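pinned: reference chain
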Amino acid sequence: AAGKGLTMEEASSIFQGLLGAGVDTTGNNLTWKLLHIALSPEAQDCIYKEQLEFAGGDVNNVQITPASVLKENAPYLHACIRESHRLANPAPTLPLKKFPKPITVHGVELPAGSFLALDGYSTGVNPETVGCDDDNVLDFKPERFLKPAIQERQGSRAQVLDHAFFKGPFSQGARKCPGSRVANLETAAFLAALCVEWEIKVVGSNNDNDKDDGTPIQHWTQVPYGLE
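pinned: its structure tokens
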């Protein structure tokens, strides 16, 4: 209200958002994507070939432009971004909310004092949702988000992967991050430029000619917890 300051609860909610998402939107968005692409020489090669094709096949004229990283011109690049987000959402859960009054959510009655958090991670690594077995759900496979795969899962449980709220870390609608367009463009341009100019590796991984145990990266540790 006019003339009144923020309550402690309001201030706490605001600062959680500032610290969690406002420090460096693009940097948070890039962190896991860099690692996934560094671990996948095949993905790097596909991204490079897309940019080369956009340049008309001229290796001396490959330039990263806003047009060259559009989804219609670089579908594999965007598939890599989507697949990395599925595996490692930079904001896996929204801040916990405590309800002062009873509330019903999708037919489930929650008493006053209940806590609720929206989970943006588990769905993406659920084998039943992704449509694969347990051994492959953590594999980085950008092909999951190319047009044939998207069309194939329409009408199935797996189509939730293509829901607007699952496409990226910036939400949708009136509460969508105002910097999301710039962050998404910067992310695509950075990854494309990196794959055009460099071959990147992770020391000690298979693509560095060293052996590892073949265990997929577990991005978030899932543990049971309770709230008092």
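why pinned: The radius of gyration is 20 Å. Residues 122 and 156 are 18 Å apart (CA to CA).
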